[in-house]
Design goal:
This protein is an alpha+beta fold and 102 residues long. It has a single domain, classed as GMP Synthetase, Chain A, domain 3 (2-Layer Sandwich). It is 47% helix and 22% strand. The chain has four helices and three strands, in the order H-E-E-H-H-E-H. A three-stranded mixed β-sheet has the order 1-2-3, covered by helices on one side. Strand 1 and strand 2 form a beta hairpin. It is globular, with a radius of gyration of 15 Å.
Length: 102
């Protein structure tokens, strides 16, 4: 397994992180949980959480994709991955499991 997608995931995280601070205040704190880059570098799926309004955060970030893609274009790569934002549901399933165990 190549380390390149993981390295590119770190770079993508650094590019997106400043934009998270621009999310609407109604979203609360927005965090990147992980970035998965496809082996062929076609897609980068960014999993996020938001304390208050996660759907509003996703909507905001999707509106920022053209700007973020341009920033990614500054990387010297033959193929710039298409960004996709998804809500991280692992935290939800973890709390559900905790409730079931109680």
């Amino acid at each position: 397994m190549s380390k390149r997608p993981a390295m590119l995931g770190s770079i993508i995280r650094e590019i997106i992180a400043p934009v998270l601070r621009m999310c609407p205040p109604a979203c609360g704190i927005v965090s990147i949980i992980k970035v998965d880059v496809s082996p062929d570098f076609s897609y980068a799926t960014v999993y996020i959480t938001a304390l208050e309004e996660p759907k509003k955060a996703i909507h905001f970030l999707e509106g920022q994709i053209p700007r973020l893609q341009k920033n990614l274009g500054s990387l010297y790569r033959k193929k710039i991955p298409q960004l996709r934002f998804r809500l991280d549901t692992q935290a939800d399933s973890g709390s559900r499991l905790d409730e079931l165990l109680k």
